[in-house]
Structures
1.
Amino acid sequence: METQILNPNTDASAIPLAAKLLQNGGLVVIPTETVYGLAANALDPEAVRNIYIAKGRPGDNPLIVHISSFEEIYPLVKEVPEAAKRLAEKFWPGPLTVILPKSDLVPSVTSGGLDTVAIRMPSHPVAREVIRAAGVPLAAPSANISGFPSPTKVEYAADDMTGRVPLILDGGECAVGVESTVLTLAAGKPRILRPGGITPEMLREVLGEVEVDRAVLDPLGKNETAASPGMKYKHYSPETRVRIYRGSEKGYLRYFERHPAQGQFALCFEETAPLLRVPFVTFGRKDDCLTQTHRLFDALRELDEAGASLALAQCPPPRDVGLAVCNRLFRVAGFDFIDEAPIVGLTGQTGAGKSTVANVFASAGYRVVDTDKLAREIVETGSPVLRRLAEAFGEDILDGNGALIRARLAERAFADAEKTALLNSITHPEILRRTAEAAFSFSERNIPCLLDVPLLFQSGADAICDVTVAVTAPAETRKRRIMERDGISEEAAALRMGAQEPEAYYTARADIIIRNPDGADPGKAALAAAERIKTRYGGIA
Ligand code: TXA
Ligand code: MG
């Protein structure tokens, strides 16, 4: 079959030709504000059957019926509830599809054998003109071969549909770039079956309660039936195998370093791209889910064009428009996730209440990495670090069994600043290496962890943390706490505190500050922080 591509903006014959083809039972690819659609007369069973054939689409996956004015809904449904009117007033024309019990006028092939019908009024001027000119409602699924990404540009629609339809209308790039939000009003409470540009929050403003179908973010079990048949198919799959990384940006960068692979690309946010050392395709800025939905399908095609065999994708939190991004991405990836938990660094002044905070994190499921313990382990008898210490500070820092005599090392290493620096240069890199290994190993097993490091910023250990937490308290309070805790004099306590950085040092560096003066409840603030950090995957700042 010859396929013509016409632009109605420059070719006056385009719309009348489309209308004639549609009236005669033919297929026409039309632009909409979401994605390009493969249209046919929704009331002509033979024409609709040809849609399924052209797309290679399973016959039980129903189609959306497109109308150009609100009145056209009445003959298609049993009745029009108040909720539908309010939604139409607010969101039509636009990227919202509403499901209602169908009338007998709608052929069963259009509704995939269901007794409901999905209806939407697109806002793209070409789509509306074609529907008006044809004088019939148009069934139109996305104009891709079934299982491939929905086309957001006329070239992509042409890639898939050339030779299968007589006419493709060029309406430029689709503004929304992701398919419409599908909302059912036919089964109890309003429920979102497919998220899109119209978010749950926007719908709740009009309807009050709105549910999100479980199939939106979770794979269906073997024997479960999908409320929306489209949800059960692996959709939008590009050639490139896509996996989803759920974790922080630092973790994402680290993943590529620790798991290099031939042909592996990053499918990432714009901000992340310059930090990567692997080839990448971007799909919008981190906080801009509207652009992400818009870019996603294009980005998948770009990965294929670049010959990527594997792509590791970042993903936004599943909220607002991010819900639509996650819904599509999860399906693209066939729910193949790499989940990595956050690494939190804890520091603070002596006596401020660091251990209280660490205990709260532990009770919230964090594993605490005790760096003091690691510091002791690296100087165990026979260790390479201990050997180097003996070479630097004298063989007599070891006893007859080769064990470290701590007091003797301390005496020599703290004699002057130069010696202290020498000690640190031998021990710190190894402590840091072990701390990082412990942290990465927890994170990779999706266990959140807390690094308890008194000199977090000074040692550079903050570089491996996704979030840093500092605990501070007024000097007087800390002094009294140290005296009580360690049973020491005011002078001794003051001496210990003298070596500590002031509060401003921590507030300038830490992501989260927990202030713990007398009468404060650090536990509450710590628990809130622990939970917030845990649930915020997809780019912890
Ligand atoms: O933005 C869009 O909606 C685009 C443009 C072309 O309008 N169309 C589109 O159609 O995405 P399609 O066929 O690719 O997706 C329709 C989705 C499918 O997931 C289908 O299962 C669901 O809507 N659907 C249609 N009728 C339904 C019904 N009666 N009950 C439940 N789900 C239905
Ligand atoms: Mg589709």
2.
Amino acid sequence: MAEIDSNTKVVVLTGAGISAESGIRTFRDADGLWENHAIEDVATPYAWQANPELVWQFYQARRRQLLGVEPNSAHRALVDLERFLGDNFLLVTQNVDDLHGRAGSKNLIHMHGELRILRCEKCHETFDYMSNEHLTDQYVACPSCGNERLRPHIVWFHEVPLQMSEIYSAVEQCDVFITIGTSGHVYPAAGLIEVARQNGAYCIGINLDNPMNIDLHDEFLQGKAGELLPKYVKKIIN
Ligand code: OAD
């Protein structure tokens, strides 16, 4: 087990697996389909141009799903780890759900965007819109510039993930890099572990199945994040 004290700089990268025990389906488990849709039909800018209604309805359903799920013990364990490490902790998530934030994580980057948020493609403003009036199948207009439809603030395939320079800088400087519930298929997220290793970080993985990049981990724990992570964090803190 890695030596971690309150001065250790830790970056955690999470993926869909950490939210699986809250009842949100992962990507790779669905045979290339996401809630019965091909990814290219709902998660690309071309889909939004060609068939905005389908894309909108798909994301509105994902947004409404957030109202029925709760953070689990793995999300909460990361809050405990952040309390212990303070500013030495950064959580980078590929997940677009809001479970880390609702659990209480603060130093958090959503590199693939957030379901809670809608964005105007004309004036670029973002809106945290989760009240009932914003969750129907009707488009939501931009209150700032009047554009008739806001888009999901999601990084679709062929788009660039968010806050990458902050992420790279933290990963380059970290002592310990931890991946949780991610299959290691999607770049650039899957390549962050290589950056961490090149800069001498000790790399830990927690995942139900072997991720693609398992060989890059110094230590790998196989199992459910909700069961393994709280115990691991407790050991660190004690
Ligand atoms: P994946 O669905 O590719 O991988 C989820 C991983 O979590 C798998 O390796 C599972 O074995 C593991 N897993 C499932 N249940 C678990 C549990 N209870 N505890 C621990 N691990 C568990 O999801 P991601 O790696 O997050 O991108 O996918 C990365 C990106 O690909 C997503 O952010 C999304 C997707 O297409 C965009 O939307 C841009």
